[in-house]
TrEMBL record:
Annotated signal sequence range: 1-19
Protein name: Peptidase propeptide and YPEB domain-containing protein
Origin: domain of life: Bacteria
Alphabetical keyword list: Signal
Species this protein is from: Ohtaekwangia koreensis
Amino acid sequence: MKKVLFVFALVAGIGAANAQVSSEPAPAAATESTQLQGDKVKIKAEELPQTVKKELEGEDYRGWLINAAYHDKTKNTYEVELKNGAETKTVKFDKEGKKVD
């Protein structure tokens, strides 16, 4: 009888210890950031349309280097992160190479 009570107490103790462990749900912020990006995918600078490349070679962007490039498939726009020394900026273009806001 003592063995049965001991086993029962042991099982109950293990059950109580495991009941305290909870799995945390995924943070809402991570889910939102994924949704905000939509169909934006990172691409290589060489994959930018020729019209966008030509615009980036213009006077407005002289001295700036392409740090990263993205294609938003939903809006069919291109987002280019530029870097000039310690300064960075992001510019968006449509497929025709025109700057969009």
